[in-house]
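Recap from last week: sequence in, structure out.
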Amino acid sequence: MIRLTPSQITVDAAAAEGLPSRSISGVAVTYDETATVNDGTKVRFLQGSLPVTGRDPKLFMQHDSNQIVGKVVERVDTPQGMMFTGKVGAPPLGYEARSRASDSVRGAVSVGVPAP
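Predicted structure tokens:
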């Protein structure tokens, strides 16, 4: 499994007025930029290299499969990168994920893909 943490990512959390947000959206990965994986490996994603259909990927806190916070419900492939919207679950982890995103404490996402 390749765990990539791109250096320039934005995450936006938004809510209907008076209601807590149930989604997180932003850039999952930027295309044509070299990024460094946790083990030092250099990787680059090209447009079309990630699927936009198929089973919805799960959202994990810190790549920990025991900390599922939701799932990706929309993926949009753009020339700049893969955009995503994730539906975030109930407290406590869902609340924490939404709170960190809206407070910009967690200002990035990291994709996990199988190693070639």
